[in-house]
Prior knowledge:
17% of the residues lie in helices and 33% in strands. The chain folds into 2 domains: 3-221, Alpha-Beta Complex (Spore Coat Polysaccharide Biosynthesis Protein SpsA, Chain A); 227-435, 3 Solenoid (UDP N-Acetylglucosamine Acyltransferase, domain 1), CATH 2.160.10.10. The chain is built from 8 helices and 35 strands. Helix 2 links the parallel strand 4 and strand 5 (68-72). It has a 21-stranded parallel β-sheet that branches. Strands 5-4-1-6-10-7-11 form a 7-stranded mixed β-sheet, sandwiched between helices. With 454 residues, it is of the alpha/beta class. The termini are far apart. It binds uridine-diphosphate-N-acetylglucosamine (UD1) and calcium ion. Residues 8-11, 51, 73, 76-79, 81-82, 100-102, 136-137, 150, 152, 166-169, 195-197, 223 line the site of uridine-diphosphate-N-acetylglucosamine (UD1).
Amino acid sequence: MSLSIVILAAGQGKRMNSKLPKVLQPLAGVPLLGHVLTTTKHLSAQHVHVVYGHGGEQVRAVINDPSVNWVLQAQQLGTGHALAQAMPHIADDQTVLVLYGDVPLTRAQTLQPLLDAVAQGSVGLLSVKLADPTGYGRIVRDNAGRVVRIVEHKDANTKERGIDEANTGLLAAKASHLKQWLAQLKNDNAQGEYYLTDIVTMAVRDGVNVEAVLAPSEAEVLGVNDKIQLAEVESHLRSWRAKDLMQQGATLADPARIDIRGEVTVGKDVFIDVNVVFVGRVHLADGVRIGPNCYLKDTQIGEGTELFSNCVTDQVVIGPQCHIGPFARLRPEAKLADHVHIGNFVEVKKSQIGSGSKANHLTYIGDAVVGSGVNIGAGTITVNYDGANKWQTVIEDNVFVGSGSMLIAPVTIGAGANTGAGSTITKDAPAGKLTLARSKQVTIEGWKRPTKKS
Ligand code: UD1
Ligand code: CA
């Protein structure tokens, strides 16, 4: 049977106190709804429908996923009403899995038993045992332990409120069944809503078995209604991702002080100090060490390289055995070969730096091709921008750039050349020679310091 997933996401999320719709609130840098959509990819759904509400245009624009069919629920009349809006788009022979846009941490393998239940002719519900189930619908079972109905907290009597098995809201059923049952929903309940949960009674009435499958952990079914719950799910996700890195072999100075807003892969014997933020795709090869307070986005780092504290990298490839930082900034398209040293307050953008080259202090390298064995003195700037266009600087192998050099691009410093400290190099400097470009030092005889007028 092929699978259609319906994500209910029309709720307003007033308790977020935010201009951003609830399902767009970021969790590990990705909108809540984005996490749910990622789960649907792991279940290889044939169709994904998202039920969105008033003002949901922003949600559609931000998510911008062409595989999603967007279904408008103009008025929020309850979860049953929400699902009913999607049903005309779903063929009778489909299995339907209902997810919530604000429940981001459920894994595909946790949902699989619900689909298996449907394959065997049942309705599958995901339930969870809660120490405090206040506010949740409760799973009511008969003496034989069979699920007979779900009662919402607001409609439940004292005995029913004592049940600790709560409804997560996530369920799966045959489309043909759902169409039949949703058409019969009434809103004669405490909230005046069309409850999706009422289909359980109808299933039982029609002789369809209802199987409640317990979620493996509470964290996986947590819903996000306010910023406090958002921080809670963030902390669960952080801890899972940190554990995953440790299982890959990384040593974390403190698993509670690492943020992974993307996909990180590591080799063996990697060490990551506190307060490191990873964004996008990051790979750290064997033996890489990352110092405290680094921010790494879309970065690949080769074997044995060390980043000292407070480095920022973005779209960068760093080779093996390099020393970077502290306080280095590597910007998009910086590509460093092996044994490169980039020191404090050095910025590198759209440049290649060859094997063993060094820029240890206070330098800007932009739009440059730097060979191997080059030493770039403190305070050097590749002057790449003329106010309209960017130009390239080429520094060939074994060049020694004197401190405080301005290299006015386009310009080439030939192999083995030296530039004198403080030079402003506007023309190509020949290989193997010392080039100086600065005015002669003069001392003015008889000059006096100005004094204050009385
Ligand atoms: C629902 C369940 C309850 C369960 C709880 C788990 C029903 C009647 N109750 O209750 O048994 O314990 O979830 O959190 O289903 N939504 C819409 N349109 C609507 C109403 C809701 O799209 O008209 C969406 C919301 O955006 C949300 C989801 O459905 O993603 C759940 O809605 P919510 O109001 O939180 O349901 P509860 O009343 O908490
Ligand atoms: Ca809720």
